[in-house]
């Protein structure tokens, strides 16, 4: 009886600890939401939501100041789309190779390398971009080198570990009987992998892409170091010119901003937070669809 009692209290204590841990995470997200929206929404109303979201001038020093973040929204979309263009195909093909083709001696080297790539700090990626990618883009394509293209390539490299790791795990989770059935019906190894295993793991692959997009949207330091930081509305064909993302806009000016300028930067954070919420909502919908 005493043993049962002790076990019961241990189980109760574990449940309480887990509940408090989950509540702490929820509380942290809630406090962030409250702070951002309480500080940012009034600034949006004062500036004008339409003017704030669609204005093309970011001039805090003007009288009156102008706070239009459309160039930063478009810049974030450009570099994120470029990162998807560069990172997603390479990441998926690398995951297919590691899950189904890679010999074990090579896998033992490649897997730790991918894990190491995930652990490199953003500032190191940014330094690599400044020293290697910026001169490469400048000498190969022209322009100053600090551009949308450079930021897209760098972000494409940074999202590779997320895409590769999650996609590989999703493909390894596919029951082996599916592959064996495809081979038994006459499919080659490559055809079975690309036409059977990969589609069967599409939910996990899509989840890796969405999480990679979230990493690209939220990246700050590396993009700030290579994107040129020009708050100018760019057209799609101007990928060799500099741009400024939402995250870079906040980090560049928050240190000296005050009053309305500071409130506008916090409102920029609200817009960025909404973008991340949309990405997480898409991820949740994808999980529900897979569960159905």
Jot down its keywords.
MetI-like fold; 2 strands; two-stranded antiparallel ribbon; mainly alpha; 292 residues; single chain; globular
Question: In terms of topology, how is this protein built?
Answer:
Layout: H1 2-47, H2 49-54, E1 58-59, E2 66-67, H3 70-101, H4 104-119, H5 122-141, H6 148-158, H7 160-172, H8 176-184, H9 189-200, H10 202-218, H11 221-226, H12 246-253, H13 259-291
Antiparallel strand pairs: 1-2
Helix pairs in contact: 1-13, 3-6, 3-7, 3-10, 4-7, 5-6, 7-10, 8-9, 10-13, 12-13
Task: Provide a descriptive summary of the structure in words.
With 292 residues, this protein is an all-alpha fold. The chain folds into two domains: 2-47; 66-291, MetI-like (MetI-like fold, Orthogonal Bundle), CATH 1.10.3720.10. Helices cover 78% and strands 1% of the residues. It is built from 13 helices and two strands; from the N terminus they run ααββααααααααααα. It has helices spanning 2-47, 49-54, 70-101, 104-119, 122-141, 148-158, 160-172, 176-184, 189-200, 202-218, 221-226, 246-253, 259-291, and strands at residues 58-59, 66-67. A two-stranded antiparallel ribbon has the order 1-2. Strand 1 and strand 2 (66-67) form a beta hairpin. Helix 1 (2-47) crosses helix 13 (259-291), helix 3 (70-101) runs antiparallel to helix 10 and helix 5 (122-141) packs across helix 6. It is globular. The chain starts with a helix and ends with a helix.
